[in-house]
Design goal:
binds CO-5-methoxybenzimidazolylcobamide, 8-stranded parallel sheet, 8-stranded parallel β-barrel, elongated
Length: about 800
């Protein structure tokens, strides 16, 4: 049994009952105002290191504190904002500064002294160079110095980097037993300079163990009020605000602020009405401001708040919130896991983190809400690699991470350095797992996935799975981890061997949610193991699991099929307001299961589209549907119907050719195979025959002889046939030699028929060579003959390169070129 004791107010050294009441949200607390403003007013030259004034001008510093105490401040903040070893350098030691600063503060008669800790003045990795451990050590030194000097609490303030404030809070938590007040600084857009929102800050700092969370500096109280309200909605901890006296500007060489004490106090009153419990001032405020704040909190207790409990996981930029009272879905992307993924294994082995990060970025683009990160391979040092990969992912994606490892040391290394509140994957019902993983989750404020297995393995029945889940929940409670921080994974087994078990898993999901108040996760893909059409089975199971209450599927967001289920369920689950996301995604979507033609029966039609059928939209283009599905039977009627209203060439260009192009792409992708390609071509041929029969006879007869052929080795002739149809129609005498035509046969025809223009078609890269040979033969043996070439594989440049006289991109251009040749 572990000796771990969760950090609560009872484990802290709290100066007195009034401070405890403030920490419990039962009493207001009034801080002081700006130190810099006061030093300037006192005519003190702050210099590069105002903290040195604690040593050189202690009386002046004490006078500032005393002025605030006289104005009503209960807490004064030591003049130690930049008192860290990085900033102080050789000017003084951290210990000297804190010792002097606390003495100055105590001498003012203040009720409580807060040890002030500001940013280190260097950016942390990956933006800067400072590692987590370096930052932590700098803060830890300050914490120890402040505690030794006798502060009552810490105020960690003006932070803009969530990683940095986490390092500071951890340092305070691990090196002292004093209360921690942690505040960040937000810009006008409601985010810190590095993109953290008030919600993310409050959730993350609360979970990590800050006793008070809040906001200070940068804006005035009116601007900060809505940001504070956003914090109040997501944390039960007291919220603190120390606003600036508005914006600074320079008057007569002095910095002045644009909000006067009365307006300032009025705006702060609004925040207090909203529920802000702890107030004070920041830049530009002086005792006149603080004096008016005393009226606001006198004889008043903080507004009682109630917060909707929720499962919340954060990155530095994003919070995923799943309220306990309802089912909301979050997709956990499973692709960063080397098991069975050779490319990822190779990348991890080679230290190619760009590839790993690429996997994260694509999952984010595909719709994942959270990324699972597993780098477990026997030959790799996970304790080093897992935090590195998490750090890189945090630099390139905004998604919260789920840290996945069987090695508790690797989990701790990653969770400790993670900028946010992560999910740990996983704890299970085994005693050893409970005793090692839950303390880590509790200490770092992480959420956990609880697997329903124990020393006896994975139980068969739903009841036994729920029993293990219950044990996990009860054990977690001992560590101060509530059910709202737990995702139970009831562990999917294949339906192929035991269908009853599949049903049992779904029942277990419902029971865990209802009986234990937890959220549920599931890795869905195991369900189909050993069965064909696995994606079909997985997607069906996913929908069934959502129906049973699944909150967080662990899945590949790259599977369009799964994401279709997710997006559809979000509408049915009332979490896609106005179906906006669904409509944006699926407007114009072609349902692959729908029969395109009235009276058609997809099942009976013997379609060319098998498993990888493309989207065929009912009521859409019938020609496209018939070509893609390879149904020639209905083609004649469909083409005739369209010919009644559409020009034949327009019909070919706007419907037949795009459909054949689509077939080509599907073939290219390996979705279609040769039989489907042939069925599509056959359907198109019937359509072209129908069009040809409807084409009016050429108006001007006897325009000249043209020889057409698809070159040797190439049997594609649909395009060439269209060219022939048009040239016929224009009145030329066309000698069509067909496809796979030998160059000599073409030369013979030229000589025998007095041909002046030869048209060659080629559709494959491999057959352009025989086109070149044919051109060379014709130019050598029949120099007066012009050669026109076409075919999808050609470009004008390539045509010129192989010696052709003309290139035509389509049949109409071929006809124009013929005019040119014969008019010459
Ligand atoms: Co095949 N095929 N095919 N194929 N096939 C392509 C060309 C391909 C691009 C498909 C793909 O992989 N995406 C690919 C070639 C890859 C490459 O080399 N770059 C390919 C392949 C690989 C193959 C086989 C090797 C498959 C196999 O067996 N593994 C095999 C080849 C056999 C051979 O030739 N030795 C093969 C077979 C077939 C079918 C028999 C099944 C069938 C052809 C039936 C037939 O023609 N009777 C077929 C089809 C239908 C296609 C696609 C899907 C469609 C071709 C087509 O008819 N397009 C084609 C993919 C594609 O192109 N998107 C593909 C419509 C037609 C109107 O366009 O011919 O370009 P096109 O003609 C246009 C213009 O280019 C121009 O005007 C026309 C109308 O505007 N034009 C000219 C054409 N010739 C002109 C001549 C001119 C002037 C303009 O002046 C003389």
């Amino acid at each position: 049994m572990t000796a771990f004791t969760p950090r609560t107010l009872d484990t802290l050294r709290i100066a007195d009952d009034d401070l405890r009441a403030a920490l419990e949200g039962r009493r207001h607390l009034l801080f002081d105002g700006g130190m810099g403003t006061m030093l300037q007013a006192a005519g003190l030259e702050a210099g590069a290191l105002p903290e040195l004034l604690n040593l050189s001008e202690p009386d002046a510093i004490t006078a500032v504190h005393a002025a605030y105490v006289a104005a009503g401040s209960e807490v004064v903040t030591t003049n130690t904002f930049g008192a860290n070893a990085h900033k102080l350098g050789d000017a003084a030691t951290v210990e000297e500064i804190f010792d002097a600063a606390v003495r100055c503060a105590r001498a003012s008669g203040a009720r409580y002294v807060a040890g002030d800790i500001g940013p280190l003045g260097a950016l942390m990795r990956p933006m800067g160079t400072l590692s987590f451990d370096e930052a932590y050590n700098l803060f830890a030194q300050q914490v120890r110095a402040a505690a030794t000097a006798g502060v009552d609490l810490f105020v960690i303030e003006t932070m803009t980097d969530l990683a940095e404030i986490r390092a500071a809070v951890l340092a305070a938590k691990e090196n002292s037993d004093l209360p921690i007040f942690a505040t960040m600084t937000f810009e006008e857009d409601g985010r810190t300079f590095l993109g953290t929102s008030p919600e993310v800050a409050a959730i993350t700092l609360d979970a990590l163990g800050a006793d008070v969370v809040g906001i200070n500096c940068s804006l005035g109280p009116a601007e900060l009020r809505p940001l504070a309200a956003r914090m109040l909605a997501v944390t039960e901890k007291p919220v603190m605000v120390q606003a600036n006296a508005g914006l600074p500007h320079v008057e007569d060489g002095r910095t002045v602020y644009d909000i006067d004490p009365t307006a300032y106090a009025a705006a702060v009153r609004g925040m207090v009405d909203d529920g802000v419990g702890i107030i004070g001032g920041c830049c530009g405020t002086n005792p006149n401001y603080i004096r008016l704040l005393t009226d606001i909190v006198r004889d008043r207790t903080p507004q009682q708040r109630s917060m909707e409990p929720a499962f919340t996981v954060t990155s530095a930029q994003r919070a995923v919130v799943l309220p306990c009272a309802e089912q909301r879905i979050a997709v956990i992307g499973e692709r960063i896991n080397p098991t069975g993924k050779k490319r990822l294994q190779a990348a991890l082995r080679a230290g190619d983190l760009d590839y790993v990060v690429g996997q994260g970025i694509s999952q984010q683009e595909q719709g994942a809400d959270i990324l699972d990160v597993n780098v477990g391979m026997p030959e790799l040092d996970e304790v080093v690699l897992l935090p590195r990969v998490c750090e890189q992912l945090q630099a390139s994606t905004v998604l919260p991470l789920q840290i996945d490892s069987t090695d508790p040391a690797a989990i701790e290394a990653a969770v400790r350095r993670y900028a946010g509140s992560a999910i740990i994957n996983s704890v299970n019902g085994k005693r050893e797992s409970l005793d090692t993983i839950l303390p880590i989750a509790a200490h770092y404020g992480a959420n956990v996935i609880g697997l329903t297995l124990d020393e006896d393995g994975i139980p068969e029945t739903a009841e036994a799975r729920v029993a293990i889940a219950r044990r996990i929940v009860n054990e977690a409670a001992r560590y101060g981890i509530g059910p709202e921080r737990i995702l139970i994974d009831c562990l999917v087994m294949t339906a192929s061997t035991n269908q009853q078990q599949a049903l049992g898993i779904l029942r277990a999901v419902s029971a865990c949610r209802e009986q234990l108040g937890v959220k549920c996760a599931l890795g869905v893909s195991n369900i189909s193991f050993g069965l064909p059409a696995r994606e079909l089975m997985n997607a069906t199971f996913l929908a069934a699991a959502f129906g049973a209450g699944l909150d967080a599927p662990i899945m590949n967001p790259g599977s369009a099929r799964y994401m279709d289920v997710v997006r559809s369920f979000r509408v049915l689950n009332a979490e896609d307001e106005g179906s906006a996301a669904y409509i944006e995604r699926y407007a114009g979507w072609g349902d692959p299961y729908k029969v395109p033609i009235a009276g058609g029966d997809a099942a009976a039609a013997g379609t060319a589209t098998g498993g990888g059928a493309p989207a065929l939209d009912e009521g859409g283009d019938p020609i496209r549907c018939l070509i893609l599905s390879g149904r020639k039977g209905e083609m004649k009627a469909a083409t005739e119907q369209l010919l009644a209203t559409t020009d034949p060439l327009e019909l070919i260009n706007s419907r037949f050719i795009p459909a054949l192009d689509e077939v080509g792409v599907l073939f290219d992708q390996g979705t279609y195979f040769l039989p489907q390609l042939m069925a599509s071509a056959e359907a198109a041929r019937v359509g072209f025959d129908t069009i040809r029969a409807h084409m009016p006879a050429g108006s001007i007869a006897g325009k000249g002889p043209i020889c057409l052929a698809t070159v040797k080795g190439d049997i594609h002739d649909i395009g060439k046939n269209i060219v022939k149809m048009l040239l016929d129609n224009y009145g030329y005498t066309v000698f069509d030699l067909g496809r796979d035509v030998d160059p000599q046969e073409i030369l013979d025809t030229v000589r025998a028929r007095g041909v002046r223009l030869v048209g060659l078609s080629a559709l494959m890269t491999t057959t352009v060579k025989s086109m070149e040979e044919t051109i060379a033969l014709l130019h050598a043996e029949a120099p007066d003959v012009k050669v026109l070439v076409g075919g999808a594989v050609l470009t004008p440049e390539y045509a010129a390169q192989i010696g052709a006289d003309f290139y035509a991109k389509d049949a109409a251009e071929a006809a124009r070129i013929a005019e040119e040749v014969f008019e010459a």
